[in-house]
Amino acid sequence: MWEEIFLLSFMCLLTAILFSKFFFHIQPNEIKFHLFFFIYYLSCSLVCLVLLPFFLLRPKSVYNAKFGAAIMKHITKLYGLKWELRRGEILAEERGAIVVSNHQSSLDALGLYNIWELADKLTVVVKKELLYIMPFGLAAYLAGIIFIDRRNSKHAYDQLKITTDVMVKEKTKIWLFPEGTRNKDCTRFLPFKKGAFNMAITAQVPVIPVVFSPYYFINNEKFIFNKGHVVIQCLDPIPTKGLTLNDVEKLTNQVREKMVAVYKDLYKEVTANLPSDYAHTRMD
């Protein structure tokens, strides 16, 4: 049975590659735009299907996630995206830590796949709804991804408490998106939720801010999805030793301010050499 699944997945992936290469030469339109995302989701699902039997050998291990990311990162080649990691040594250091980043699109996952190997023991906190999207949800569960129910704060808190204990004992980094949802407005950040910073202070581990530069190559209103360059900038870790839960709000604001400042600088950098008529959202 698995031989048939592998063969079918390979054929579908090959078809997706051919379609993506062909459609890059067509002028932007709504069909092309949504088809690009459909191919992205289809490719991820097919790879997850192939990975499932391997993940079953060591269920819920963070090393499953690392192995899966090493395969999934090649989906980037379908879209001509370049991910440039800066100061990666910060992520590479073996330690328990809370990693927080801005969240612009489902494509953020591709960026994560491309840096996962360097971060080594890493897991991600995602919304519980993703668990029910098959086969991605099952593969993510077996890869040790953490699902929380945002509508049930007590259950979410209990789950994160267990996760915090594992983070400290096994020196695992936990990646969260404090904006809480995808932010399609590339001109500003959404307000940060405090859960990640609560976890960091409770565990007395550092917060590592990571900023993804704006996805200037995607324009939802004009249905543009071009090739592009994304800078993933790691900032200096912010220690939490000695802080108490009374400092959560101050820490949250401190991290957000640092990330916003870097994001604005990256915006100027990645858009500096674009043609004057390039259809991207402009920052005030």
UniProtKB/TrEMBL annotation:
One BP annotation, GO: phosphatidic acid biosynthetic process
Organism: Parnassius mnemosyne (clouded apollo)
SUPFAM superfamilies for this protein: Glycerol-3-phosphate (1)-acyltransferase (SSF69593)
Key word Membrane present: yes
Keyword Magnesium: no
Annotated domain remarks: The HXXXXD motif is essential for acyltransferase activity and may constitute the binding site for the phosphate moiety of the glycerol-3-phosphate.
EC annotation from Swiss-Prot or TrEMBL: 2.3.1.51
Stretches assigned to the Phospholipid/glycerol acyltransferase domain: 97-215
Pathways per UniProt: Phospholipid metabolism; CDP-diacylglycerol biosynthesis; CDP-diacylglycerol from sn-glycerol 3-phosphate: step 2/3
CDD domains hit by this protein: LPLAT_AGPAT-like (cd07989)
Reaction catalysis annotation: a 1-acyl-sn-glycero-3-phosphate + an acyl-CoA = a 1,2-diacyl-sn-glycero-3-phosphate + CoA
Protein name, per record: 1-acyl-sn-glycerol-3-phosphate acyltransferase
Single GO term (MF): 1-acylglycerol-3-phosphate O-acyltransferase activity
Family from the record: Belongs to the 1-acyl-sn-glycerol-3-phosphate acyltransferase family.
Enzyme class: transferase
Transmembrane segments: 6-24, 36-57, 130-148
GO CC, any one term: membrane
Keywords: Acyltransferase, Lipid biosynthesis, Lipid metabolism, Membrane, Phospholipid biosynthesis, Phospholipid metabolism, Transferase, Transmembrane, Transmembrane helix
